[in-house]
Amino acid sequence: MSGAPQGFEPLFRSSPVIDLIGPVYSKGEGAELVLGLRTEAKHCNMRGSIHGGILATLADVALGYAIAFSTKPPTSLITASLSLDFAGTANIGDWLEARVDVQKKGSRLAFANCYISVGESRIVRASAVFVVAGELKEH
Q1: Measured distance CA(111)–CA(22) in Å, rounded
Q2: 20, 26, 50, 126: which has the fewest Cβ within 10 Å?
Q3: pTM of model > 0.85
């Protein structure tokens, strides 16, 4: 199985690291943003399951984008802390969804949690703190 489920579109913004792990898909916007990724061989470790670094990258992007694009104009953020707990794994062909719960966005710091799931099973819980660096600059 390849591609994304109905309702998901290619992510509206990219970067070299997103291009490297992608294609990454999205639906919703702002704090309701959901990111999706279909696990491929390039995402996996020697055991054939997704590498924790890919999950950390997906969580970091989901957390940052959900907070950044929850304001107009978007907010520029710098990851200050990212913590992950792994409760499961994914294999080639699995569809991953990353959903964010924004706890607080202040003038200097922003806090949020992210849950990455395969189907109904949560496989990652991530927590992050971001430094608010002003308005997001388009490149």
Answers
A1: 25
A2: 20
A3: yes
